[in-house]
Design goal:
homodimer; 190 residues; mainly alpha; Tetracycline Repressor, domain 2; 10 helices; DNA-binding
Amino acid sequence: MRADALKNRQRLIDVAIELVLEVGGEPARDAIAERAGVGIGTLYRHFPDQQSLLHAATRHVLEKSVAAGEALIEAVPDGVDALRQYMHMALDNGIGAVNILHPLLEKPDWPDLRVRAATLMKSMVGRAARQGTLRKDLSERDIVFGLTRFARPLAVGLSSDEERSLAHRHLDFYLDGLCAEQSRRGALEP
Amino acid sequence: MRADALKNRQRLIDVAIELVLEVGGEPARDAIAERAGVGIGTLYRHFPDQQSLLHAATRHVLEKSVAAGEALIEAVPDGVDALRQYMHMALDNGIGAVNILHPLLEKPDWPDLRVRAATLMKSMVGRAARQGTLRKDLSERDIVFGLTRFARPLAVGLSSDEERSLAHRHLDFYLDGLCAEQSRRGALEP
DNA sequence: AATCAAACGGAGGAATATTCTCCGGTTATG
DNA sequence: CATAACCGGAGAATATTCCTCCGTTTGATT
């Protein structure tokens, strides 16, 4: 494969992720090509149909996030710290795009990745709970749910930099809440 | 105005809010009319152009939320409790639709409401901070940002009931985090 | 530096989605 | 029961998105 072809291919994937996050759904092919700075023909040569690009993009993000997460769980002994770093990292990797794309994919089954991701989440939550720093009533699904809340920009008239920085800030608040001994609300209205 | 006309008008507004939340953007007119169970002609008679429907819907949600918030601040003495109840209520009222629609409106200026909303937020945050139960470094914008994270469904393959219930649950976690004396993260990486 | 297979760009017609008008029929209201 | 107000939805008009095709450019190889 020629060098320029490879570069374009990767660029198309990156742009697709970017646009998926901005649009909050399937972006128009023309828009992807334009933003990537390539002709529409190039897009169609690399990804003959919509699905193949979306698959490639989703897989790219997932793979990066899971791999980094597996490394974190080895490297960071404290459970909540590992979880926190994982979530911030996933957010920067564009994990929100996976959340958006998953329901749009026709055959989104990657047995290998699915297992690795599930195992990773289970380890993260389990260890932190066992260490006593994380609430005991959280499942993996909760973590995924929480992550998705901060993982994609929701238009409120902020620049994308402001949005990113606020997302990280509030993700930290949220994680503080997950560490609280007992929900204040729970105490008030049992 | 005839009774059936009024009923249809209100129904159209409700459906619009519902669809805006589902779609995450401007829904197609046809879809609104169909879901509301009225002919497309009826939609156009009540709201000759797109903007007028979106305006009406936005205003409806905003008005309800602000009014309820003003009542809460009177009725609930504890600052954080008031804030918590406000956020849960706004979530149920479809405040997420406002967040989505605002950037799509052409002339979204309701001086009265804008002032009331700003005042409300300032009071809520200010009082809770003064009472010492809420973090001191939060602005009104932070609260709005946080609210928007939970205020609209983000597709993850959940039924709309599951989604709603998880949103409330995690909003509580998040609020617990806003009450923490000091962020654990902040303590770890200053 | 010459060659050429591989890759590129983008005009523009086809396909699809959305908007919005129009008018014959229906219904609430007095 | 009269009638003004309201309703429904077919379908033409418009906007958007898709995707093919082919002449041009470029990276690799010798």
